[in-house]
Design a protein that fits this description.
Layout lengths: L8 H7 L19 H5 L36 E18 L2 E19 L11 E15 L3 E6 L6 E7 L2 E5 L5 E2 H7 L22 E2 L3 H8 L3 E14 L3 E14 L2 E14 L5 E12 L7 E14 L22 E4 L4 E5 L3 E6 L3 E8 L2 E11 L10 H12 L5 E10 L3 E12 L2 E12 L4 E9 L3 H4 L2 H7 L1 E3 L10
Parallel strand pairs: 7-14
Antiparallel strand pairs: 1-2, 1-13, 2-3, 3-4, 3-5, 5-6, 8-9, 9-10, 10-11, 11-12, 12-13, 14-15, 15-23, 16-17, 17-18, 18-22, 19-20, 20-21, 21-22
Length: 483
């Protein structure tokens, strides 16, 4: 076996799937929902009241009510959020698609300081959150159970609204994908104020929502059609209750998805703070590029109360959007290797020796990256370039491919990175393979193979260079002395 142990382009080509749902949609690219919610596929919608400081009628609950998004501005609240999911998860199988029963429960408790901006639309949303608890427990089939909880290192979170949904970042450390997805809960308390009507309404009145609101709440990224209706069910001097229901058909993470939601929430009219919510969401999703198929029902319940005095210590935000650096994610691998990457990359397969990632943009597959261990050599050395070239040339012949260029893209005290580009054929489509042999100063080596369709050259652009810039070896911890 060759010392560089490169992945064959045949395997890369077979893994690179260019068949992705690309619905014709007219606007919105929306929030990813939590891995918890994406894996088990649930996102819900709700609505919120914020009573205006002058619009409450004291002598008649039948008088029209004017809602204001400033009712909870810069206020601190405490949220207790729970979700339960039941249904089926569908995965590819040699005989077609196999269905597995799934049950999941999640619980989240956090303090929040909301700081709306004057930017308009989804960019209005902004908050600081401090989590005291966040976790899910999921069972798939009769034997497979997993639990995910939020690490204390990521208990402080800054949240911003964007045209891609809510963006959660840690003020200190890049978030791992699993921790990010855990934070992206459906029926987010911060988002629901956008469901408020722009004019006064009376009991029995109905209204629609801005298009981006429904997509942000459901996690659907590309919309084909949608509908949403809110209705003022009842009101007294203290509280008001709103019913809501909606439906969205589109695509999420490249998978065709249909979501329907219904529920109600109650709001304190004087303070404008939502007191409680109950909602049910159903989703049917086809298996996709990085996500399984789903047929699930989720029940969501949460309450919100004014924060305690000590929670007023939550900081205030000065920026209106997260920096590019703060938005990067951290991938810790079993290969004694870690790297930072953009949120377009999703891990979809992992073993102790190989991991595979796919890059999605607006639900469309752009590229794939396979990372694996290569043979270890003495410190400060690397596999000879001629041997690396021979490995790649032999491999690409299997796909009627050929090497078109080679270069050393990095050579310093930490890494030497050798690059070979090859072009070949995969099921009639021209594919570009970028092979990298990454040799650390310790002698540990890694193989990184990126593949993309030649038609996507402009979309792929300098993605390989960005991944390589975030590459970092993980050193072994020194052994403790015997005592």
């Amino acid at each position: 076996m060759s010392r560089s142990r490169m992945d064959s382009p045949s395997a890369a080509g077979q893994s690179y799937n260019t068949s992705v749902v690309r619905p014709e949609h007219r606007t919105v690219r929306n929030t990813p929902a939590a891995r918890f919610c994406r894996s088990v596929a649930v996102v819900c919608m709700l609505a919120v009241f914020c009573a205006s400081s002058t619009g409450i009628a004291q002598d008649s609950v039948d008088a029209p009510i004017t809602f204001s998004t400033t009712g909870t501005a810069s206020k601190v609240s405490a949220i207790d959020y729970k979700i339960e999911i039941r249904g089926e998860i569908k995965t590819p199988h040699s005989g077609g698609v196999r269905a597995w029963p799934i049950e999941s429960r999640g619980a989240f408790r956090f303090k929040q300081r909301s700081q709306p901006t004057d930017l308009g639309g989804p960019f209005t949303l902004r908050a600081v959150r401090r989590f005291s608890a966040a976790g899910t427990q999921t069972t798939v089939g009769p034997e497979t159970s997993t639990a995910v909880s939020l690490s204390k290192s990521y208990s402080n979170i800054h949240t911003f609204g964007s045209d891609r949904g809510l963006v959660h970042v840690s003020p200190k450390y890049p978030l791992p994908r699993q921790q990010l997805d855990l934070l992206q809960t459906p029926c987010d308390v911060l988002v629901v104020a956008a469901l408020l009507p722009s004019t006064a309404v009376s009991v029995g009145d109905k209204w629609n929502t801005d298009e981006w609101v429904m997509l942000m709440l459901t996690g659907v990224e590309a919309v084909i059609e949608q509908s949403a209706t809110c209705e003022l069910k009842s009101a007294d001097d203290e509280t008001a209750t709103v019913l809501f229901h909606g439906r969205v058909h589109g695509a999420t993470l490249g998978s065709e998805s249909t979501v329907s939601i219904s529920g109600e929430f109650t709001v304190h009219r004087r303070s404008g703070m939502i007191a409680s919510l109950k909602a049910t969401q159903k989703e049917q999703r086809s298996p996709g590029t990085v996500s399984p198929g789903l047929d699930v029902t989720a029940t969501i319940v949460w309450t919100q109360v004014p924060g305690s005095p000590d929670s007023e210590t939550l900081p205030t935000l000065t920026e209106t959007a997260p920096s590019d650096r703060a938005s990067l994610l951290m991938l810790q691998t079993p290969l004694k290797l870690q790297l930072t990457h953009s949120r377009e990359w999703h891990l979809f397969h992992e073993t102790p020796s190989v991991l595979m990632m796919r890059q999605l943009r607006d639900g469309n597959l752009i590229s794939q990256c396979n990372i694996s261990s290569a043979v270890t050599v003495p410190a400060k050395q690397h596999t000879p370039d001629s041997e690396f070239l021979s490995d790649v040339a032999d491999s690409v012949k299997q796909r009627n491919g050929s090497v078109v260029e080679q270069e050393t893209v990095r050579d310093d005290n930490q890494w030497r990175v050798r690059h070979i580009r090859a072009i070949g054929d995969a099921s009639g489509k021209e594919i570009v393979w970028d092979y990298y042999l990454c040799s650390s100063s310790t002698g540990k080596q890694f193989s990184m193979v990126l593949s993309h369709a030649r038609d996507d050259d402009e979309l792929f652009a300098d993605e390989a260079a960005k991944l390589l810039a975030g590459l970092q070896g993980v050193r072994n911890r020194p052994a403790l002395p015997f005592r």
